[in-house]
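Severity: low
Component: inverse-folding endpoint
Summary: output formatting inconsistent between runs
Steps to reproduce: submit the following structure tokens with default settings.
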């Protein structure tokens, strides 16, 4: 199973069971490294979260071919600039959002303190997006399915080319 499609940037990722759609949601400052750690732990039978082996048990039952590793959202890592007691960092807010949406394999559903739930509901971690990024998102959303697929293939080739040259 190749994990090269996962970029080495901050964001929210999921490990998705292709047979039933159930998923484990996680956050990372470097998604590629974190997903590789998760994959190694699952392959060796050592995946434990909060003392529980929920994902490991289904991985053992279905096998590695039944799972996909996917990026759910790129999120700016502001953890160094944030006092968690005053306001959770962007990655934690975004992870809480996706755990709330669908996360059958996450044993702990409380990522942030309850007093900060309004930040999740308001999508506060996205507020720092630049107007340029917003414009790019709108342009991409306006593309046809075929155009989006072509753009995705082009971007994947660009990333591979740059990784090989560095």
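Observed output (run 2 of 3):
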């Amino acid at each position: 199973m190749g994990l090269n499609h996962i970029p080495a940037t901050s964001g929210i990722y999921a490990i998705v069971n292709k047979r039933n759609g159930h998923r484990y949601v996680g956050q990372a400052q470097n998604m590629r490294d974190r997903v590789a750690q998760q994959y190694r732990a699952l392959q060796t039978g050592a995946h434990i979260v909060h003392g529980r082996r929920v994902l490991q048990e289904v991985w053992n039952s279905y096998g590695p071919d039944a799972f996909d590793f996917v990026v759910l959202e790129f999120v700016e890592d502001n953890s160094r600039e944030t006092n968690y007691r005053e306001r959770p960092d962007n990655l934690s807010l975004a992870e809480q959002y996706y755990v709330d949406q669908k996360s059958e394999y996450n044993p702990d559903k409380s990522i942030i303190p309850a007093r900060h739930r309004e930040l999740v509901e308001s999508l506060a971690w996205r507020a720092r997006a630049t107007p340029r990024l917003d414009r790019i998102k709108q342009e991409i959303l306006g593309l046809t399915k075929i155009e989006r697929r072509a753009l995705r293939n082009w971007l994947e080739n660009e990333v591979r080319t740059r990784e090989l040259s560095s």
